[in-house]
Design a protein that fits this description.
TIM Barrel; single chain; about 475 residues
Amino acid sequence: MGRFPEDFLWGGATAANQYEGGYDVGGKGLSTADTMPGGKIRMQVMFSPEFNWQIEPDKYKYPNHFGIDGYHRYKEDIALFAKMGFKCYRLSISWARIFPNGDDLVPNEEGLAYYDAVFDELAKYNIEPIVTISHYEMPLHLVKEYGGWANRKLVAFFERYAQVILDRYHEKVKYWLTFNEINSAFHFPMLSMGLAGDAARDMGTVFQAFHHQFVAAARVVKYAHELDPELLIGCMTLYATSYAADCNPVNVLANEQQKEEMNYFCTDVQARGEYPAYTDRLFKKYGVESLEVEEGDLEVMFENPVDFISFSYYMSFVVNVTDPEAAKAAGNLMDGIRNPFLKASDWGWQIDPLGLRIALNELYNRYELPLIIVENGLGAYDEPDANFVVNDDYRIDYLREHIEAMADAIEDGVELFGYTPWGCIDIVSASTGEMSKRYGFIYVDLDDEGNGTANRYEKKSFDWYKQVIASNGENLK
């Protein structure tokens, strides 16, 4: 027997708002992602009090509008994924492509037909789709008219959207994820909740929006299982392994409480079906008095937990509350204290393969549900030569070490059934809106200003990952 199950799902992952482009074609409405400016100032702009979801072309560039033109070039890309030997492909559906305003009564048939074509193309190569229903975007109208997920009405709008795509695609798609990195709202609620300005800073509003998303997700699980018992619905969380800076009990406790909040809270609710015992402590910490909970909410959450847990893992960080001068390290939508034992990526994210093994054990031992890693990878500056050859040995090293950690976790007893490295083809970065922050096995000829042909070129890591898949994770040289 090999180290990985025979039916292990090797593949890659992208998101509609970073990949597709075509922001104003095919009947698509504007989404929140269409208002996100490009460049390292992206999050700073979105967190400013003045941010109002407007598109200001005289002031900013909007790289998500074009993405990498996957809307028109998906057949070419899927053929490249098939050449690598992908068993699966994680993608997302753009809510605004199906319901342009979000509160429409009738879906956009042109949008539905587009994803039919995508799924049919994947089926041609026997690639299993793993679909995220909401990945860091929603119809812009739902934010401007209703205030995003702070408004209870979004539960019904999301439910209608999810039911339409489940009805349409359930014979083509077995694996579904509800909300991408749902817990990221602790740091950037504008991405997943459509909250900005004062609403984004008010944790009472954030927790109320969490509740609405929990109810909506549970209703989707219920509907999916009633529609087709073979469907599998998972939650998706941002997971960052963390360590206490030392054995000072103050730091140890702070680290444990940080893990409960960031790594476990949302998954506790969606995997166990109820709010955890430490919820009151979180409310007290953030000054949240209570939630508005309607009759039946807690019951539908309890009766419809997820079938599996998916998560992203890029880095780890250290918790140190006893030294306010401790050096900081950047991370995936959040930061922590620098770990002197680890190296960092070009963007300052600390590289920690052993942390992935720890994460897998922590998640599996806590929930005893099947796991899939749906994001992992190295964002780096790739420098192609004149023929667009990219020798990205640094990416190969990163992925090799993380796959080794996955194998070790499986030997530990963890039930891991898949791995989809992030940005398997270069796409627009979610956190910075840059093209220069590249993750892919496939180089896309576009720069941060949108210049280039958008043509695709295989990197050195392309052939390396092809042999990893062909050997089911045995050949990592």
